[in-house]
Amino acid sequence: xxxxxxxxxxxxxxxxxxxxxxxxxxxxxxxxxxxxxxxxxxxxxxxxxxxxxxxxxxxxxxxxxxxxxxxxxxxxxxxxxxxxxxxxxxxxxxxxxxxxxxxxxxxxxxxxxxxxxxxxxxxxxxxxxxxxxxxxxxxxxxxxxxxxxxxxxxxxxxxxxxxxxxxxxxxxxxxxxxxxxxxxxxxxxxxxxxxxxxxxxxxxxxxxxxxxxxxxxxxxxxxxxxxxxxxxxxxxxxxxxxxxxxxxxxxxxxxxxxxxxxxxxxxxxxxxxxxxxxxxxxxxxxxxxxxxxxxxxxxxxxxxxxxxxxxxxxxxxxxxxxxxxxxxxxxxxxxxx
Length: 337
Prior knowledge:
Blueprint: H1 8-19, E1 26-30, H2 37-49, H3 53-56, H4 64-71, E2 77-81, H5 89-101, E3 111-116, H6 123-134, E4 140-146, H7 154-157, E5 161-164, H8 171-179, H9 191-198, H10 202-210, H11 213-230, H12 233-249, H13 251-272, H14 285-292, H15 297-315, H16 320-329
Parallel strand pairs: 1-4, 1-5, 2-3, 3-4
Helix pairs in contact: 2-4, 5-6, 11-12, 11-13, 12-13, 12-16, 13-14, 13-15, 15-16
């Protein structure tokens, strides 16, 4: 059973490649956060190791290899994460990748290396990957995962089969996720609102269904940001300090904060240009209308660019507190308009 949903063309490509015995030895799965990139990577890992794939045309989820991959205990599946690992990327590549890749599979048919956030790689990291990607062992699959393909060297791109993951446009598919879930949303959460907020990112819906606190944390973030732009410099700096600490604690959550706040400002822009039907945060529409009355379209366009620049600077390892201070001190306060 394929766990990847809403990406039928990608799954068909993988199935056809396996059936014709023309599966690539290196993949680059690219797309926005929570679109199913990691799920697809594990689906591929199961497909090439499943004992009954040919019979089912999908991972069976019942053989020993599928079960151990799902539980994270399969000795031939190696996970490397350039964003959240406590060890350096160089150490990861040398010890967990280069030292392992030429060893024969221990319990499966293929060794699979899943490397996340390769768009964070520096040139020295990329160079360690290149030789292996040129001539990978026959029983090895390397899967690179990235949000931003523009930051990846052309020499790596040319050696990978690229699989692009996009937000799902089938609203009925997204809504059906709630019916087939083992979890139930709290009464104060509406499934249609969650679908709207997901922006077609099926993985985000899964996360909220299993942990509704993610939704409420997002609303708290909006509350604090609105308070910051409606109050004094001291309130802004206090909010900036909180964001910086969150980023230092978990970079993934820090980048998520930036993305979430950017969607709020894009909603403000939609209100200003008279396109309220495109507003994502529909549960906050009335208050956003009030705030939008204090800004011009040009103001908001510049603010969105500031958030994009902040994200770039965070990726370049600029001091997070400095990045957030500059960001929120540069946004006009409602008290000043």
